[in-house]
Amino acid sequence: MKKLLLILMMGIFGLGCSQQTPKVLKTSFSKEALNQKLEDEEGKSITIQQILDQHKGKVLVIDFWAGWCRDCLKALPKAEELEKNNPNVDFVFLSLERSKEKFDQSLERFTMNEKENYWFASGWKNEFNDYIDLNWIPRYMVIDQKSAIAKYYAISPEDPEIQATIDKLLK
Predict the structure, then answer these.
(1) What is the torsion angle, in degrees rounded to the nearest 10, for the CA atoms of residue 63, residue 128, residue 96 and residue 25?
(2) Would you identify the CATH topology of the domain 29-170?
(3) Residues 6+ apart with CB under 8 A from 50
(4) What is the pLDDT of residue 25?
(5) Cα(first)–Cα(last) distance of the chain, in Å?
(6) Which residues does the chain have with pLDDT short of 50?
């Protein structure tokens, strides 16, 4: 009976934290999502729209991660390899740390200081993350030169569709 109860509880709790590909793979952002604010390393506020504007004309890979996320940390070497193999692509790292202090610590600990980093001071639940159906990290998105979503959902930097999308956009 205890085993059955344990299995049942694992199934119930597992439903809330499993990765599932969203039913709709979006190709653009809503106005509300674009207005979502993040903070940079200095604590300065910036919107998703401003980040996209800074990279307009370039292919952009967005990497969602956190220092507390085991899967993110396991993926970091492959994410760095993806970045190294694509010197004509911009990379932005969006952190889901739980505090500015943890954000700063993770940047230092995982030598992310040389990269373009922002964090969601508002937490996981916000207009942008809700709009893109963020249900798991790490998560990767590829944005085209006109700020449209070219690859909506990938949970590994080794997903072959990421590189295929980048290659197609750079032709």
Answers:
(1) -50
(2) Glutaredoxin (3.40.30)
(3) none
(4) 82
(5) 60
(6) 4-17
